[in-house]
Specification:
Number of helices: 10
Bound molecules: manganese (II) ion
Strand content: 15-25%
Distance between the termini: 38 Å
Radius of gyration: 19 Å
Largest sheet: 6 strands, mixed
Structural class: alpha/beta
Helix content: 25-40%
CATH architecture of the largest domain: 4-Layer Sandwich
CATH superfamily of the largest domain: Metallo-dependent phosphatases
Number of strands: 16
Length: 321
């Protein structure tokens, strides 16, 4: 196959098989010879194939077929990472798991996956084995792809920790669950983004009414960054609660001098798909939420992103969030 036509970077699918098929069809892909493919383009998935949606097995099957046929690249999302941590016992507390198997984590995130795949089944183990092979980012000629956040120093750290494989190892999985370790910070950054604690005693109340002591940060936004101008929050009333003071030194975000654009998912964006800048775009538009959509950025080698290259199909509008 050839990929001379470019790459179609697809956002978080979260088990929405029908929505994914609609997007692939819209992009000109068709299933032939055992996998969805395009005559001269390749798909790239930003991760979070699983959790939440109704057809997670069908989604993983489709994406694995593309991966194995060479018609798609796949990066790891925090939900695939969490699926691995869910089944991995803590060395210091055998019988407990790296990701706490508590009711909240299960009910709110992972229960549907476990039910659909069959917890402990051969298929479950097969999926886990495949998730372990997914790169934690994609460093491509002309384009960068990561699930949540590209920070060169954190990427260099994980590259070194994995001997350049850029894939999870048992040691990295274990140590990334030791709070505030270097491995923890690196994996949190790449797969979940950057969160910064507000100076005490400041807090804010988010759109859902939860009082927050830390804010997620728009790492792609150029300096100067304050809590107010760079927090990822919904609604001007929420933003107004945040102090308009510079982020603390410890939270300084790396200056991005890489000329390549960066595409990522993870942030549950809503509304019409839009670029964040001419170098950054988030393609997660909440495919599993009412009024969400599944979005792709069609990249054909450009060094500056173009808004017209965003393609979207409606998400699961007839399903509950
Ligand atoms: Mn995510």
């Amino acid at each position: 196959m050839t990929t001379s036509g470019g790459l179609d970077v697809i956002g978080d699918v979260h088990g929405q098989y029908e929505v994914l098929v609609r997007l692939l069809t819209r992009l000109g892909y068709a299933r032939r010879d055992g996998a969805w493919r395009h005559p001269d383009r390749q798909a790239v998935f930003v991760g979070d194939l699983i959790d939440r949606g109704p057809e997670q097995v069908a989604v993983v099957t489709l994406v694995r077929e593309m991966h194995d046929a060479g018609t798609a690249l796949v990066a790891m999302g925090n939900h695939e990472w969490n699926a691995l941590a869910w089944v991995t016992q803590r060395p210091d507390h055998p019988g407990e798991f790296l990701r706490d198997n508590n009711d909240k984590n299960k009910r709110l995130q992972h229960a549907d996956f476990l039910a659909q795949v069959g917890e402990g089944s051969a298929l479950h183990h097969e999926y886990l084995a495949w998730f372990k092979t997914l790169p934690l980012w994609l460093d491509l000629p002309g384009l960068r792809v990561v699930h949540a956040c590209w920070q060169p120093a954190q990427i260099a750290h994980v590259a070194e920790r994995t001997n350049g494989s850029c894939r999870v190892t048992p040691d990295l999985l274990e140590r990334a669950h030791i709070k505030h370790s270097a491995d923890y910070r690196a994996i949190e950054t790449l797969l979940k983004g950057i969160e910064v604690a507000l100076p005490e005693p400041m807090t804010f109340v988010d759109k859902s009414g939860h009082r927050r002591h830390q804010a997620r940060i728009q790492w792609w936004r150029p300096a100067p960054r304050t809590f107010r101008n760079s927090a990822i929050v919904e609604g001007d009333d929420v933003r107004a609660q945040l102090p308009d003071i510079a982020l603390p030194d410890a939270a300084v975000i790396e200056v991005d001098t890489d000329p390549r654009p960066v595409v990522f998912g993870h942030y549950w964006a809503t509304g019409s798909p839009t670029l964040l800048s001419n170098k950054a775009v988030c393609v997660d538009y909440s495919a599993s939420m009412v009024n969400g959509s599944l979005v792709a950025y069609r990249w054909s080698g450009e060094t500056e992103l173009v808004e017209a290259n965003l393609v979207s199909v409606p998400g699961a509008t007839n399903k509950t969030a």
